[in-house]
Amino acid sequence: MVNSLEKQAASPKVDSKTPAKETILAPRFYTTDFEEMAEMDISVNEDELKAIIEEFRVDYNRHHFVRDAEFEKSWDSIQGETRELFIEFLERSCTAEFSGFLLYKELSRKLKERNPILAEGFKLMSRDEARHAGFINKAMSDFNLALDLGFLTKSKKYTFFAPKFIFYATYLSERIGYWRYIKIYRHLEQHPEDQIYPIFRFFENWCQDENRHGDFFDALLQANPQFLNGIKARLWCRFFLLSVFATMYLNDLMRSGFYKSIGIDARTYDKEVIEKTNETAGRVFPIVLDVDHPNFYGLLEKCAANNVKLGEIAESNGPKALKFVRKLPLYINTGVNLIRMYFIKPIRTDLANQANPVR
Prior knowledge:
The chain is mainly alpha-helical. It is globular, with a radius of gyration of 21 Å. It has 14 helices and 6 strands. Strands 1-3 form a two-stranded parallel ribbon. Strands 2-4 form a two-stranded parallel sheet. Helix 5 runs antiparallel to helix 8, helix 7 packs antiparallel against helix 8 and helix 9 packs antiparallel against helix 11.
């Protein structure tokens, strides 16, 4: 699958695009401790993992991601800032999906001999992620561009995460992906006049892939109760919830023009996605964030304002050293605000889940 994606990216019909400049908020590529993952005991929740894998095998979306006649037209009508923001949306989405593909593919390869159940689960999820990335990259070709996935594979820096951190991060990534896709799909279903490009029609089935992947990581976390029990687990879950929510909020407000082009207010959209993802995470995480706390969004808005100023400084003229000096107080202020958000008292869900188990 990766070879076909790379061939698509190198198609002579379009300009091959190298990835945009990497920033702290950009989609990241991950690696992990494969030895620890291979030795993981999943017997406590093996039956549920097998049931989810069986659902993966059915491959409900096997014939879904097929371009239809609506794609066969010129998209020159999308111009100016809207075009730039939409291409950036496609690029970031493709990078995120391709990152998932590479991680899951490598996990399936490394675990095949010693943990075949997990290996098959990751293999089937990598199939889905590759399909998503290829579909998005093909959409970019409608704008005479395609992401150079071969260059991306070789040039991206890989961030090491221990398995439990991979589980926290990817679980939340899949869950928040579901809510992002379904919110856009439902809005455009009600307001077809805002559907500027046909890829959005595929988001309902797309988000079901995300949901099934989230179920897989949910089951993996349940199979490893040490990742969910105790004060350390609660602190880490809190950290990842805040990291994922803040990253999305800052990214989306910087690109609010894109959401406006499809009739969505970025702030309202993000708040709805955060609330739904937070609620969903509470079914497995021992704590969730108190997003209704009066200071939560106020502090997040201060971080977003700092982020806008950082972007303006980055685009301004002047030596790098001077830019860094101007950026430093903004970085510090953002860090302080995030710490203040982190210490907003969270909501315990583990006690309620034990009293009223979902399963």
